[in-house]
Specification:
6-stranded antiparallel sheet; Beta-Lactamase; Heat Shock Protein 90; alpha+beta; 19 helices; Regulatory protein; 5 domains
Length: 873
């Protein structure tokens, strides 16, 4: 049987997922189902994400409470998008995939779940059963051993007595007789004040007689029993009115150590006084022994302000907590105020309101309209009088509690003393809960910073670092974020990245920030307020609204005003700027903003400051790495030939791969250049090792070859002089294998080559019949011996022939103990008959890459030259 139902619809935007989580959490907590809230919120988040993000439609969320459990239904309007259900024949292989994860969670967490399709919608539902516990339990303490439980000398008795309008006792129950020893006939008709051993709660000025006239009162006093002993009791008074309209006070009294709380039940909308009268006094109250502790600090604070408001019969109440340095107070809970916009707002302690000018002392404001701005938190709320008292623990200020009324002169020193007494009782519990929350926040902050450091350390890309900075702050610390970068101290900040928790507002936010001056460059630590974005947004919204009004409803743009108002609400809250300082230089600013009059908590600002220091160093590292990479790549590109010349009558193709991340040139190199009319020089070589040192020898070799060849030296003379130049480098020299040759295209369609192979893999000649043979003989490599006697060999390429030259990165390609080798290369080349030079080089490269699963670890160069056949030309 359904006992309660709640429903809400969420638009197909990213923020709806968070709104749906809040709706389900608030609904279940309102029903007292705290034990299943966490599981329900997790499942709802996944299912609503599937609806509004993946399906792209609005989502209807329905919470249904039954006798045995709670059922959550999530419906979207895209039935054609079938959900990926997991079956034995079609398992969901990857749990991290976007689709299907919510159903896996349903299967794991829910007691029952299902999917229903209709022609217009698709519904996913799940049900969570209630745990086995007593009905009505909202929170529970730990299980304690018997010896740790409180001790009572007898069963707990609750004395219920009713006092009429004249102060005389009109009702006296059996527990009252047992507690105090008076029979009902002895006590009815007598004033309660005759039994009071002391007239009021110690520390307050309110007597029992005055307390009986108040709408609601709680406190301690003593009752003198029939045997003359004084029995300390804790009393809860509630003023009621009977069917005839006569007022009376119902009192619940227990022994001081067995304190009870008298609570009024929540009325349903539309209930009237007659309904209350029919229920009678016994039905109007709910008695619970002890005070159920809230699950967290916010719950305790909210309960405290509600009790304070009721105790003084006020219209509103609020509670502020002190910062660690006790210089400011931060709004943490309120009730009865028209807006929650003051949450986390701060006020100074010593510049506080009241006759003492300090929040460290109680204060009473009889009429706020006489002193406008005396209590800024209550500005424009219609509240006239207010009483505030400090919360102190061992003499140290921990907070402030205030109760306000719409009537002027509502409160006096008597109410201040009562409120102070209540604040003294709750201060220690609040401080303990605050310290517990602070410890939890610090642990979460450490985890957040560790994860952020890992992410920032995992990249040296500037753009990715900027994106990570913004994504880590939104929405964890702020509703939106903008990162400004500074190229040098003399340049203006540049807007580099913008992110909003609502992706639809990013473009509007970026347009707004580009129209205003960037924040000033500051080196000081900590967050500084920046009001320009919110002022510009509100000004733009006002101008647009006025323009729309002047155009009239018929001619008003449909999207202009609403878009401007949306932008104003997106950046309408507090905005702070944190400098990004690395290596004693300001390299940018991290800007964080709240939406719709939001305020930052100090803990979040301190966490953002820690994050900004780490992010600044990561951003500067990315800058340095980018500059170093750009310089390195520029130098490396200077070692490669600018472009290959067109050789008449010969096809030439070169493929070059440098090993190592970020390397464009390594120890392998190639070149093809004109020597004189009709003659070309070509070279392919391999310097020992890789990296910048090898690249330096590459530059020496390539430029020396061109210079010596154009001076008219033959192949052996060119290599001998290059050998001398390498040896002259001394300790920096490295040995070099080099294949150098000169190419002369002939008029008959052939090509004549003169080559010298100095320790290099031999060039291979592919004939038209598919045969492959070495085209040169091996000779000593360069950079080892001073006196070399080299010679050149002549090779003639007939039409259709191919000359393939490679470095040892090709032939020494390995996988385990296997190596491609010369034989493997020859085998690949035999399959290239009839292919162009480009196709030959590509087939060789493909064979090298496929030979092993791992990427090549050595530099690699492939030079293919082919003399085309007559019909190819």
């Amino acid at each position: 049987m359904i006992t309660a139902r709640a429903a809400a619809t969420f638009e197909p935007v990213g923020r709806s997922v968070a709104s749906a989580r809040t709706f389900v959490r608030d609904t279940l907590q309102g029903w007292g189902l705290t034990d299943i809230v966490d599981d329900a919120v997790v499942l709802t988040s996944e299912l609503v994400t599937n609806a509004v993000v993946h399906s792209g439609t609005a989502a209807d969320v329905v919470c249904v409470r039954a006798e045995t459990g709670a059922r959550i239904e999530v419906t979207d309007r895209y039935p054609e998008r079938e959900l990926p259900l997991q079956t034995t024949s079609r398992p969901i292989s990857n749990p991290d995939r976007e689709g299907g994860r919510g159903l896996l969670l349903c299967a794991a967490l829910a007691s029952r779940w299902g999917v229903e399709y209709t022609a217009t919608h698709k519904q996913v539902w799940f049900q969570l059963e209630f745990p086995d516990r007593l009905a009505g339990t909202r929170s529970a303490g730990p299980a304690l051993p018997a010896e740790a439980l409180p001790v009572t000398d007898a069963r707990v008795r609750v004395a219920v007595t009713q006092i009429d309008r004249t102060g005389l006792i009109s009702a006296w129950n059996d527990d009252a007789q047992e507690l105090f020893g008076y029979a009902a006939e002895q006590i009815i008709g007598k004033p309660l004040t005759d039994l009071a051993a002391w007239p009021h709660t110690p520390g307050t000025g309110t007597g029992v007689a005055e307390a009986l006239q108040l709408s609601r009162w709680e406190g301690s006093y003593g009752i003198r029993g029939a045997d003359g002993r004084v029995i300390p009791v804790y009393a809860s008074h509630l003023r009621v009115r009977d069917a005839d309209g006569d007022p009376s006070t119902v009192c619940l009294l227990v022994r001081e150590r067995e304190r009870a709380v008298l609570q009024s039940p929540q009325r349903t909308p539309g209930a009237d006084a007659a309904d209350s009268a029919e229920r009678g006094p016994a039905d109007a109250f709910e008695v619970s022994i002890g005070s159920p502790a809230p699950d967290d600090l916010d719950g305790l604070l909210q309960r405290t302000v509600e009790r304070a408001r009721d105790m003084l019969d006020g219209d509103a109440a609020y509670l502020l907590l002190a910062t660690d340095d006790e210089t400011e107070l931060e709004v943490r809970a309120s009730t009865g105020l028209t807006s929650a916009r003051q949450r986390f707002a701060r006020v100074p302690v010593e510049a506080g309101t009241g006759r003492y000018g300090s929040a460290r002392m109680p204060a009473v404001h009889e009429d706020l309209s006489i002193v406008p701005g005396a209590v800024p938190l209550l500005a424009n709320t219609g509240l006239r009088s207010v009483v505030t008292v400090p919360l102190k623990v061992e003499g140290r200020l921990t907070g402030s509690l205030g109760v306000a009324s719409e009537s002027a002169g509502r409160y006096s020193n008597e109410e201040a003393l009562r409120l102070q007494f209540a604040a003294d009782r709750i201060a220690l519990a609040v401080e303990r809960a605050r310290l517990t929350e602070l410890e939890r926040l610090r642990r979460n902050s450490l985890s957040f910073l560790v994860e952020a450091s890992d992410l920032l350390a995992g990249t040296l890309d500037r753009d990715q670092t900027l994106a990570l900075m913004a994504q880590m702050t939104v929405p964890t610390l702020a509703n939106w974020c903008a990162v400004y970068t500074v190229a040098d101290p003399a340049s203006d900040p540049e807007l580099s990245y913008v992110l909003h928790e609502d992706e639809e507002r990013i473009d509007g936010l970026k347009a707004l920030l580009t129209k205003i001056e960037p924040p000033e460059q500051v080196r000081t630590g900590g967050a500084l307020l920046w009001t320009a974005p919110s002022q510009a947004a509100h000004a733009a919204a006002l101008r647009t609204s006025l323009r729309g009004l002047s155009l009239g409803d018929a001619a008003r743009p449909s999207s202009g005003p609403s878009a401007s108002l949306a932008t104003a609400s997106a950046v309408g809250g507090e905005t702070v700027v944190l400098p990004l300082v690395a290596r004693n230089r300001v390299i940018g600013m991290l800007t964080l903003g709240k939406s719709t009059d939001g305020h930052f908590r100090q803990e979040n600002l301190e966490l953002a400051e820690d994050l900004s220091r780490r992010a600044a160093l990561a951003l500067d590292n990315a800058r340095l790495y980018s500059e170093r990479t750009a310089i390195s790549q520029s130098l490396q590109r200077s070692l490669l030939p600018p472009e290959l010349p067109d050789v008449t009558g010969v096809e030439v193709e070169v493929i070059y791969r440098a090993a190592g991340e970020g390397n464009e040139v390594g120890g392998d190199f190639y070149d093809l250049f004109p020597i004189r009319d009709g003659a070309y020089g070509f070279a392919i070589g391999d310097v020992c090792g890789t990296g910048p040192e090898a690249a330096a020898v590459t530059g020496l070799a390539r430029h020396a070859l061109r210079l010596l060849a154009r001076e008219g030296f033959g192949g052996p003379a060119v290599l001998e002089r290059l050998n001398t130049a390498i040896l002259d480098e001394g300790a920096r020299s490295r040995f070099l294998t080099l294949l150098y040759g000169e190419l002369w295209p002939q008029e008959d369609g052939s090509a004549e080559l003169k080559v010298v192979c100095a320790g290099h893999p031999l060039p291979l000649r592919l004939r038209q019949d598919g045969s492959v043979e070495p085209a040169a003989e091996p000779q000593p490599l360069l950079g080892v011996m001073e006196d070399l006697e080299l010679y050149e060999q002549t090779v003639t390429l007939d039409p259709g022939d191919v000359l393939l030259c490679v470095t040892d990165g090709v032939t020494e390609r390995r996988e385990g103990a296997r190596m491609l080798g010369d034989d493997g290369l020859i085998e690949v080349l035999t399959t290239c008959t009839g292919l162009t030079a480009g196709a030959v080089a590509s087939r060789v490269l493909r064979a090298v890459e496929r030979f092993a699963a791992q990427p090549p670890s050595d530099d690699m160069a492939i030079l293919a030259m082919r003399v085309p056949e007559r019909h190819d030309a």
